[in-house]
Amino acid sequence: MRRIDSWVGGVPAVSGSGRTAPVYDPATGRVQAEVALSSADEVARAVTVAAEAATQWRSSSLSTRAAVLFGFRDLLASRVDEVAALVTSEHGKVPDDAAGEVARGLENVEFACGIPHLLKGGFSEQVSTGVDVHSVRQPLGVVAGITPFNFPAMVPLWMLANAIACGNSFILKPSEKDPSASLLLARLLTESGLPDGVCNVVQGDKVAVDALLDHPDVAAVSFVGSTPVARSVYTRGTAAGKRVQALGGAKNHMVVLPDAPVDLAADAAVSAAYGSAGERCMAVSVVVAVGEVAEPLIAAIAGRLSKLHIGPGTDPDAEMGPLITAGHRDQVAAYVAGAEAEGATVVVDGRRHELAGGTDGGFFLGASLLDGVRPGMRVYDEEIFGPVLSVVRAATYDEAVALVNGNPYGNGTAIFTRDGGVARRFQFDVVCGMVGVNVPIPVPVATYSFGGWKDSLFGDAHMYGPAGIDFYTRTKVVTTRWPDPSTSAVDLGFPRTR
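^ thats the sequence. predicted structure below, dont judge the formating
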């Protein structure tokens, strides 16, 4: 059985905890490896190594950091297929989807390559007679990232690129369900010239997470995952005096107005709801059909689902792969059954797909489409994280916006319309962190930042982009005067600027 260990100080770190977890191939249902789960003591050792490395890395020039990141960028770009293959093998995404994940992560590395510009401070001359003031951004020290199974390459790249560029050392705790991509990223960073100990990977479960949250030498923690866990991570981390950015779950609504092109909206809904088997925090899980568009839109979506090709990543025609585990597949199927019991109409039942149910060993489930869904139903109120799209009917624009704003999640939303005035009003009215206008998955490019509102984010720091630079640095303000010694005098009054 292949064993997956940690990476500390630039070399593999074999765990002696004696605890392991299975790593499945979701397309076959077979265990393909076991990942060693670190103990709290092993996490502490990784923090010690990272702290020692941070002292030296902080002193490195910005040009040196940029050169390392440019080298990493080139190595990663040349090995996209290799990283994507690991994602497909352990997560189940089809190759094109996995490669797209790596490409979006690569954008964040390219952003961080501009660190000499991004870390520029400010300078004010003569704020008082003979006095100048300037500000500098300095790294925090050791920072950690706790990342989810659904984006085992992209989300770590959201964090580590900026963290390392800013002069911090980084400890990544990836999901134990698909841990291999994180090790390849760490190896590529070492190959690019990053000093040993600046980027470390600690494999593990809740034991490792708690150890990172409690360790006094970890200055900040970035997290992406479900809302209950995000809330717990934020609470525990901030109680320990750390900076914490914790991105939680979502229930993303796509509002379709009567004037929207039905085919365009149907294509967008299918792409956004069922890509990566719905295991995306930015997946559209609710279509709000306004007025008379409902019937033709539902028919158009259902028609497309009958043509959707589901299969393993080894199938070159596959558009959607399996879910991450058998337990998660069964949980998603239970949502469909529960919705039917609560009065929703199952227009397309993914439980009846020929690959569903695990008869061939894989964790497959077909695409499901539900109509007549209403707030209060479990399928509407909870994050499903699977290939299930609910349709809620609304009579008016105002009713549709009220649905979006009344939902406890606020990660992303979209509107489909030909009316620019209504679209502008929607982006003003809606209470949500990311908004798409005729764009179903409004994930910002790397020059902006990713983050939701309400129960989709704990803390006030969004992720990557400019917000990432802010999160991984702290500002120091320096006030300078070079006086003539002959003018020195004791003055107990509060300093004035005039």
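The chain has two domains: 2-248+456-478, 252-437.
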